[in-house]
Design a protein that fits this description.
Layout: E1 3-8, H1 12-15, H2 22-26, H3 28-41, E2 45-50, H4 59-62, E3 86-90, H5 101-108, E4 112-118, H6 123-133, E5 137-146, H7 150-164, E6 167-169, H8 171-180
Parallel strand pairs: 1-2, 1-4, 2-3, 4-5, 5-6
Bound molecules: zinc ion.
Length: 184
């Protein structure tokens, strides 16, 4: 198994901005812990981030947010990417759509994704769906993903488990996988 840590949309917009939620803020320490463990174990850390153009189709639903180049589209300071971390900008929910993420994961030899970030029922869900289509084994860290409501969060976790075969795991289990890193 060769894992990568995939951090979804931990942006100013969703943690402190117009689309903020207390749930998003609450997972910051858990996501940070995962990033630190990944760094310590030499596991690739990959951010997929909204970076919208003003005419993006998705904005018809969510109104303008995380516009490319704006302060709101910045990764929060607690998770500022390190030199070796990768950042893929996206214009839809899924981190795989028109981003080159799949090719990069294949070049890295990654076959397993550990997913953290926001929102459980939107960008996390659609990224996990595409990970399934691309045949990655996927773990979703229950207490390192968040949605606007507990109901959306729980429903999405169940859906990803039942429909895409994602394993829903706790923080310590995720840390264990990261520590085993690329060695197993
Ligand atoms: Zn968006």
């Amino acid at each position: 198994m060769k894992p990568a840590l995939l951090v979804v949309d931990m942006l100013e917009e969703f943690v402190h901005g117009r689309l903020k939620s207390p749930q998003a803020e609450a997972i910051v320490p858990a996501v940070r812990r995962l990033v630190e463990e990944a760094h310590a174990s030499g596991v690739p850390v990959i951010h997929t981030v909204d970076s919208h153009l003003p005419f993006d189709y998705e904005l018809k639903i969510w109104r303008p947010h995380a516009l490319k180049g704006s302060p709101q589209a910045k990764i929060i300071s607690e998770l500022t990417p390190g030199e070796k971390d990768l950042v893929f900008e996206k214009r839809f929910y899924s981190g795989f759509r028109d981003t080159g993420l799949d090719a990069a994961l294949r070049d890295l030899g990654v076959d397993t994704l550990i997913v953290a970030g926001i929102h459980t029922h939107i960008c996390v869900l659609h990224t996990v769906m595409d990970a399934f289509y691309h045949r990655y084994k996927t773990y979703v860290v229950r207490n390192a993903v968040a949605a606007f409501s507990r109901q959306d969060h729980e429903y999405a976790l169940k859906y990803m488990e039942q429909v895409y075969g994602a394993r829903i795991i706790g923080l310590e289990d995720a840390v264990g996988i990261l520590r085993r890193g690329s060695g197993s």
